[in-house]
Every structure is written in C-alpha cells, then in structure tokens.
Amino acid sequence: MPIVSLDRLLKHASDNTYAVGAFVSMNIEIIQAAIRAAEKKNSPVVIRIHPDSRQITSFETLTTVAKQLASQSSVPVGLSLDHGETLGDTVDAIRAGCTSVMLDAAEEPLEENIRRVKQVVDAATPLGVLVEAAIGHMEHGAVQGEDDLANIEEAVRLVRETGATILAPAIGNVHGSAHGETKATPNLAIDRIRQLREATGIPICMHGGSGTPREQMRAATEAGVALVILFTDIITAYNTELKRVLDANRIGIAIIDALVPAQHAAQAVIEEKMDDLGSAGKASAFTEWARQTA
C-alpha cells in the first residue's frame, strides 16, 4: 500500500494502546528487514531516516526504496525524519516524502527550542506533515536523573507555542550507543509519561527504545507512548552477523553472502520488538479502521 501518514498511524496506536516501531534505517538492508518483519508480524511500521545517512546517499534514495517496498506490502508503512538539526534537514526530508519530521533542539534553552521548532511547524503544517519536538536532557548511553526529565510545564509551553504534533521527551529512556557508548538499561518514568500525554494532548515518541524491558515498554504504551525509535539492538545484530561472515571469509567473499544473513539477523530482532510494542497483529485492524474512517 502507499506510504501512510503518521497522524493516522499514531491515532490508531493511541486509541488501541500499542506503539509503532520506528526503525532507524541507514541502508537498504534495514529498510527491507523492517518491512519484511512487519509483514511477518502483521504490524504497522515506520522507516526512520537519520540525517547522517546523507554521508553516503540522499534522503530521496532511501525514501524511494521505502516507498517502492511499501507499495508492494500489505502492511501500513510510515516515513519519518530522525533528529533533524536544521530547518534545511526537515525541508529535505519533506521533499523526499517523509510524513513527519523531527527538529531536535532539546539541548537549547527553551526559548530557542520554541523558535526553531516553530520555524519547522510553519513550513510543514500547510503540507500536512507532522512535527516532532524534543524536550529534556538525554545523554547518549547514560541514565537520566530527575533533573534530566522533561518538565511538564515547559513541555506544555513548547507544544502550545509551536504547534508541534508529536513530543519526544526525556522520560527515563536512554539514547543508544551510536557513538560507541555502553548503553545503560532504561528506567522509564511511567507517571511522567502519563502526565506529559495528558497535559500536552499529543502522542509521545520514545527515543532510545533498545534495551527496554518488555514490561516497561508495555507500561509506557499504556501511559501514552505511541511511537518508539529503535536502532542499537537492530544494528548490533546486523553488524555482529556481518562481522562473523566476513571474518570467516577473509580471502574473499561476494558481499551479498554477508548482507543476506546480516539482514536476517536484524529482521529477527525487529520482530521481537514488534511483540514488545504490542504492534504485532495490529496491521489488519489498522487497515480496516482506515477504510472505515477514510
């Protein structure tokens, strides 16, 4: 089916108390793994594109692949930008077909965060694109303290003054080991999630989903998390299998013979995450709901 807008995906997830997994995809193999896992688990899925991917390709290359695979799939597939740092990042992603974009200015003072997010909202809203804003302090690999968590009053102000439609708060989650850090086990502040969801009235996106115990993940979805960003666990499985095959074939190997098992390893982990999120089995229900509410 065609790419599905995240407003529809998150509405259904919120109303039915599950979360959609957004899998950060730096290459075609992870995009394929995510969509194939979604088909096997009958789950909605989001392909999450990070600006770092432009070091080797373009947003358009990755989104074209995702759109082609989605068109051949029976499950709903969304496209979203991860951690845009500039207005230009978000504009490029919108042009490439993303139906939601993130402007991450969480480490800036609140006033600057508001200013930068509002710039993106003003550009994206007329195009029907959702905008994700971030708040709170979430250091890579580290456990958050109470002072790091998203402040409810500041979160309400960020949403109200910008018009952001998805909130990515620090809620006891732990950003992954993208920069070589050892990732601590998340300790989610479930009450804070619930308070933020109720106070802001918009879906909560949880970053750093890798390593989250299933019981915490389920509690988070019940409290208001509708979108979960996942990278570390998936890319670790992919890289481990890729390295195993390459190390066993030092003289020479057709790279496809290493990429195939690496992709399969990533897909297996993604399937497990869909069980954790409660999204497994929900694609058919989403499709029927979307048909009835079109």
From TrEMBL:
Keywords: Calvin cycle, Metal-binding, Zinc. InterPro entries: Aldolase_TIM, Class_II_FBP_aldolase, FBA_II. GO terms for biological process: reductive pentose-phosphate cycle. The active site is at residue 82. Zn(2+) 2 binds at residue 104. Binds 2 Zn(2+) ions per subunit. One is catalytic and the other provides a structural contribution. The keyword Iron-sulfur does not apply. Its cofactor is Zn(2+). SUPFAM superfamilies: Aldolase (SSF51569). The keyword Flavoprotein does not apply. One of its GO terms (molecular function) is aldehyde-lyase activity. Zn(2+) 1 binds at residues 83, 175, 207. Pathway: Carbohydrate biosynthesis; Calvin cycle. PANTHER family: D-TAGATOSE-1,6-BISPHOSPHATE ALDOLASE, D-TAGATOSE-1,6-BISPHOSPHATE ALDOLASE SUBUNIT GATY-RELATED. This is Fructose-bisphosphate aldolase. It comes from Faunimonas pinastri. The lineage of its organism: Bacteria, Pseudomonadati, Pseudomonadota, Alphaproteobacteria, Hyphomicrobiales.
